[in-house]
Design a protein that fits this description.
The chain is mainly alpha-helical and 155 residues long. It has a domain at 32-139: Winged helix-like DNA-binding domain superfamily/Winged helix DNA-binding domain (Arc Repressor Mutant, subunit A, Orthogonal Bundle). The chain has helices spanning 8-26, 36-45, 51-57, 62-74, 98-116, 122-139, 151-154; strands spanning 49-50, 78-83, 86-94. It is globular, with a radius of gyration of 17 Å.
């Protein structure tokens, strides 16, 4: 498809594919498949998010979130804990093993972001982030969460 194509979706998808491929190359030593943003989000929340809150925050369905958490739990990166105020809830927190993995993920994001945004001024980078956020909000389904896709959260 030529560069003049009016399809934003095409170019966003191509950029995401390239970004994700490079991210996986940088993080091959981690045994969490592609759940990098999930692990980082759990770590940043410091055990205060439930499985459902995490799924909602990342726009994932319950089944996808459960699979991601199962994999990271088996790898020793996260643990589920009972919620003192609500027996139906399970809070999710990282284990000590996750600390280095999260540092590696953040470093990989910084490196890739710097590379991807090369040639853009700081102001242009900020505006791009704002525009992408606006686009995502504009395209969000009117009712409920977006359909599940593992691509959205991998990178």
């Amino acid at each position: 498809m030529p560069a003049s194509s009016p399809s934003l979706g095409f170019w966003c998808s191509i950029a995401a594919q390239h970004y994700y491929t490079r991210l996986k190359e940088k993080l091959t030593h981690l045994d969490i498949a592609e759940w990098f943003v999930v692990l980082s989000t759990i770590h940043e929340a410091r055990g205060k998010l439930s499985q459902q809150e995490l799924a909602d925050l990342l726009h994932l369905d319950k089944v996808t979130m459960t699979r991601a958490l199962d994999l990271m739990g088996q790898g020793g990166y996260i643990e589920r804990c009972d919620c003192a105020g609500d027996r139906r809830k399970h809070l999710v927190r990282t284990t000590p093993k996750a600390a280095q993995a999260v540092k590696d993920i953040r470093k990989a994001y910084r490196e890739l972001n710097r590379e991807a945004l090369k040639g853009l001024s700081a102001d242009e980078q900020q505006r791009l982030q704002e525009h992408l956020t606006t686009m995502a909000e504009n395209l969000r389904p009117a009712k409920g969460r977006a359909g599940s896709t593992s691509k959205r959260i991998k990178a």
